[in-house]
Amino acid sequence: MESPLIDKTVELLLAAKHAIVLTGAGISTESGVPDFRSPGGIWERYDPTMFFIERFLADPEEVWRCMLDMNRSSEFSLWDARPNMGHHALAYLEEAGIVETVITQNVDNLHQKAGSRHVIEFHGNMLFARCMKCRRKYGYEQVLSDIETRIPPRCECGGVLKPDAVFFGEAIPQEAMKHSFREAEDCDLMLVIGTSAQVEPAASLPLIAKGMNSIFRGLGGIPLPKGKCHVVEINREPTPLTGHVSDFLIQGSAGEVLSLIEEKVRRRRD
Ligand code: APR
Fold it and tell me: 199 CB under 6 A from ligand 1?
């Protein structure tokens, strides 16, 4: 899908002094991991309240059983998913020194599996679990073996293990929040890829990059004075950012668009 907007994005990437990327579930759908709000998405198949922290505290066994079902009976599994050409393209742009940081809302570890090293996990990582008593961290393989004998899985100290993803009602990890907001303030280019931009505070990051304070969000985003920062969306459909915050939307598949961008950047650098 050739597009002048793809060429423009390549120029912006090559000229940027501090380019960052914000990703959402849309970058992982081509790895077979459904997103949340598209037709057939996760919130159509599973009750979102299952991932409210109050529900986990009240009945961790029920939530663990739901997660096992999500990863075993349905056609996708977070644990076995493989990165797609979109993840690999971003890993290349980082390795080429063009993209500094990927801030991801995803908990699927696919950016890391693709080789991205500078990844801020804004909503944590579902491939790990943490003890709610002593905070010790476990990989999912250890959890799966423990879960064979007892559910919910437990730490050696006896504490209940919780997936290391941010549940609704939980705070964003402090380091991730601080670091992401600083990146958004400092960047001169932000690619926003595969997110419906509906969930705060992640959805405020593009506004911060543009110098708009998110409290103006409902008023159409009155830009506050700030250095020039370009925000480019790559998404299957327009979002609340389109036409208000982002410079433009490249409407299409993240994998296809990003691999085209990678190909053009490689050609320009050879
Ligand atoms: N290429 C480009 N865009 C895509 C693709 C694709 N292959 N597949 C889906 N999309 C788009 C969808 O059209 C949608 O606009 O990606 C967006 C995904 O939006 P959501 O499903 O809302 O996912 P996300 O924005 O990441 O959700 C944010 O909400 O439920 C919480 O914690 C969860 O991190 C998640 C947060």
Answer: yes
> Is the CB of residue 113 less than 8 Å from the CB of residue 82?
yes
241: tokens are 């950012």
User: By CB neighbour count within 10 A (0-12 exposed, 13-18 middle, 19+ buried), where does 37 fall?
Assistant: middle
Q: Which domain holds residue 135?
A: 42-76+126-165
Q: Which residues of the chain have pLDDT under 70?
A: 73-75, 213-227
How far apart CA 29 and CA 184 sit, in angstroms, is 25
167 lines ligand 1 (CB under 6 A): no
Same domain for 149 and 241?
A: no
104 C-alpha to ligand 1 centroid (Å): 11
pLDDT given at position 68: 87
User: From CA 57, how far away is CA 133, in angstroms rounded?
Assistant: 12
Q: Which atom of ligand 1 is nearest to the CA of 41?
A: 21
> Has 123 been annotated as catalytic?
yes
